[in-house]
Amino acid sequence: MIASEGPASRLRVEFPEMSAHRTLSGGQRLIAFLLAALLVAGLRLELALTLTLLLALATAVYLVNLGFRLLFLISGLRGAPLVVVADEDARSIPDRVLPVYTVLVPAYHEASVIGHTLQALERLDYPRERLDVKLLLEADDQETIAAATAAAARTSLAIEIARVPVSLPRTKPKACNVGLAHAKGSLVTIFDVEDRPEPLQLRRAALAFRRLPPSVACLQAKLSYHNARQNIITRWFTAEYETWFTLLLPALARHGGPVPLGGTSMHIKRDILERVGGWDPYNVTEDADLGVRLQRFRYQVMVLDSTTLEESNSDFVNWVKQRSRWYKGYLQTWLVHMRHPRRLWRELGPAGFLGLSVMVGAVPILQIINPLFWGLTVLWFVDRNPFLQSLLPPAIYFPALLSLVLGNFLALYMGLIAIRVARRPYLLVAALLAPAYWVMMSIAAVRALLQLVIAPSFWEKSVHGLDVHAPVAEGAHATR
């Protein structure tokens, strides 16, 4: 058992401008103040004109987002590239040439689940002497420490338990930095407590790194859910994930844009991870932030054709809490990397710069203003209020109508395509009922914005183990 303070915020020390230890820089605060003052003045002096300009701006963001998603759909339908390692190739690698692989498993208040976690890890097809498994447990979480110690004694794995110091921020990335400080492997991955990785995943990643150019720093495995059929929420969540990992993420990787990583099953070279500052303990979507940072340092991220099954949130309140954290982290990531827009433009290029804004920054913002647009649409057709009509001259009305009709159709269509590719026909009804799911997203986005102001680095923990009865043997699989 190891205990360590670890490099709690190596990133803050080495690259302070890339750390979310403060939400807004001094320059961003000044800009935010000036924009707020301008908005208040405009609403007081020229209400109609100001609202028209705001609607025009929102419509422009919608259209750019629509254009990107259409591009990614076309790219996905053409067959966006995945890193494929055949089963026979993965199994044929001699154990002696495989690198030591560090597996980080952060957990907090997971005493009832940690045993299932170790069962899933035992199924990994990787030489035990080259596995460096570290359970990252909070020092004051005695119940989970006791359960983990007992479970570890029953496995064939050599497991170290790292006690993460009780200090702020209490986040998953801080725990992962503690694990990184003690990592023995040249390759590092993260698995969450509910994960069921495909047994050959580590071998596939290790061989893929040997074949790929040195500039490829990270491989993101695909994620899906083992309890997709549990209820309508898990079906919606699964359909959304299939869209993300089947169409959008591979397309982002193909076009060289920054790839928001998943919080689990991302495989990365340890030396590069340390070179870019590790994880940001203040960012509650440290995965998305790391993906952007790798791109800024001129490294590539690719998608590995191997799947890890997770537990989908099946409870409405639990889902909203988790999604609020994701959206808050997206806003943190966008604000941090936009502190120096011109530098970011040079580092990412035009496509990468726009991709970050559209696929990260705009996502929660659009979810916040979606209900406003839906309400305006209803009022437009029901009331025909002259003032409302004056806010939407033809130059704004027709683009807005296009984004409304085509945008909603495209969102539904992408979900249908993804579940067909994934061969999950039982998700069809859920995909068609997705507008109800979008309402949930809007609730989470509003909550995320409030939390960004009140508690930007607060990690709102998801409850796991709501479907622990699904057998581990269902496992994950390669998706070829």
Cα distance, first to last residue?
Answer: 39 Å
Spatial order of the strands in the main sheet?
1-4-3-2-5-8-7-9-6
Which residue ranges are poorly predicted, with pLDDT under 50 across at least 5 consecutive positions? 1-6, 470-480
The tally of structural domains comes to: 1
Largest sheet composition: 9 strands, mixed
Second-tier CATH architecture: Alpha-Beta Complex
CATH class designation: Alpha Beta
- What's the SSE pattern? EHHHHEHEHEHEEHEHEHHEHHHHHH
Query: Per DSSP, what share of the residues sits in E-state strands of 2 or more residues?
Result: 5-15%
Annotated CATH topology: Spore Coat Polysaccharide Biosynthesis Protein SpsA, Chain A
Quaternary state of this entry equals single chain
Count of alpha and pi helical runs: 17
Structural class of the secondary structure composition?
alpha/beta
Report the CATH superfamily: Spore Coat Polysaccharide Biosynthesis Protein SpsA, Chain A
Q: Which shape, going by the Cα principal axes?
A: globular
Topology, number of strands = 9
Mean pLDDT: 92
Short recap of the structure:
The chain has 480 residues and is of the alpha/beta class. The protein starts with a strand and ends in a 26-residue tail after the last helix. The chain is 56% helix and 11% strand.
Would you kindly provide a written description of the structure presented here, covering whatever features stand out?
The chain is α/β, with parallel strands linked by helices and 480 residues long. It has a single domain, classed as Spore Coat Polysaccharide Biosynthesis Protein SpsA, Chain A. The chain is 56% helix and 11% strand. The chain contains 17 helices and nine strands. It has helices at 10-14, 26-45, 47-77, 87-92, 114-122, 142-153, 172-181, 201-211, 232-254, 270-275, 286-296, 316-337, 341-382, 386-390, 394-421, 428-432, 434-454, and strands spanning 2-3, 101-107, 131-138, 159-164, 187-190, 196-197, 216-225, 266-269, 300-310. The chain has a nine-stranded mixed sheet, with helices on both faces. The two termini are 39 Å apart.
